[in-house]
Design the sequence.
């Protein structure tokens, strides 16, 4: 991405260039809105900290035309087709696409302070390339991931305890023998319930092989992963070419993911399945919902009352996530 001078005011500031933030930026840019999309990483999409398995309809939800290089592999299960994304490439390309549509995209940038909602906007302090700058935003869409630091600045409680975090570690393994090269597998072992071990093929002889454990056992993830790879009948042999680490909230979703001039989307709002770690589709849907709510206001102030429709638009997602949490808790017992 090119280096830009930050503006003094924007219609919408989007924090985080993952599936939620990119979807919101794409939907809003199609309507000619003035958007600033920032990301704390030096390169959008890198490093990969999350999963890549999701549903085939991810691209129409996000509003992007699928490119072959964005998909590592196509899978099928008993109910519907799924894809394994190449997220580093996909997200970087998508950021370039929205930039071509007029979105100002700036990397290595984070929010350090959020002012009170006044005269229909908030003053936001950004740290970018070692410098601080203030700007006014009519709306800020927060999509910066687990335990969102930005949402906390807006006095939305997103901090998580170890009991509310699932720690994940995975290898990308190539040159392996896969029992089911077109199907993924999740296995629950008694030692790591309510979490799991997975093998997700990303090619005929390549797979993402990982483990998800309780946050308090994150230090043991590597040893457990090596142990369960040896036990697994789904994969044999191969060479580890990459190691991926991350975490996701296993707590209930934020019941009120909005305030005056603020909406929280994706994993920052804990919109992720507690029993499988699936959050890509929820992120995209929430990013689209946030953009649609803003467009529906048609110039009205982005007050908390007006933004409350955002939570209502996500009711069906919340219901699914509560059911997922119930399944996880049942597994614990």
Sequence:
């Amino acid at each position: 991405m090119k280096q830009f001078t930050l503006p003094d005011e924007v219609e919408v500031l989007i924090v985080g260039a993952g599936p939620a933030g990119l979807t919101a930026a794409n939907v809003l840019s199609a309507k000619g809105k003035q958007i600033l999309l920032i990301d704390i990483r030096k390169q959008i999409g890198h490093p990969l900290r999350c999963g890549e398995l999701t549903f085939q309809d991810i691209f129409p939800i996000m509003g992007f035309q699928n490119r072959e290089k964005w998909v590592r592999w196509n899978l099928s299960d008993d109910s519907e087709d799924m894809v394994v994304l190449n997220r580093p490439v996909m997200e970087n390309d998508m950021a370039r696409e929205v930039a071509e549509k007029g979105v100002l995209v700036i990397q290595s940038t984070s929010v350090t302070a959020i002012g009170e909602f006044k005269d229909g906007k908030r003053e936001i302090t950004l740290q970018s390339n070692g410098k601080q700058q203030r700007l006014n935003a009519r709306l800020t869409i927060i999509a910066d991931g687990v335990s969102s630091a930005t949402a906390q600045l807006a006095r939305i409680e997103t901090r998580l305890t170890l009991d509310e975090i699932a720690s994940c570690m995975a290898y990308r393994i190539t040159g392996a023998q896969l029992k089911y090269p077109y199907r993924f597998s999740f296995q629950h072992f008694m030692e790591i319930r309510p979490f799991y071990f997975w093998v997700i093929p990303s090619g005929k002889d390549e797979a993402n092989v990982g483990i998800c454990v309780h946050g308090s056992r994150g230090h043991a993830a590597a040893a457990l992963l090596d142990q369960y790879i040896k036990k697994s009948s789904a994969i044999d042999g191969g060479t580890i070419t990459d190691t991926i680490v991350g975490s996701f909230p296993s707590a209930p979703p934020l019941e009120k993911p909005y305030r005056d001039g603020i909406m929280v989307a994706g994993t920052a709002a804990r919109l992720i399945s507690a029993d499988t770690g699936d959050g890509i589709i929820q992120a995209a849907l929430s990013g689209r919902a946030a953009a649609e709510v803003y467009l529906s206001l048609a110039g009205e102030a982005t007050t908390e009352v007006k933004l409350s429709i955002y939570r209502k638009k996500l009711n069906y997602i919340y219901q699914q996530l509560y059911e997922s949490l119930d399944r996880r808790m049942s597994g614990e017992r």
Notes: The mean pLDDT is 92.
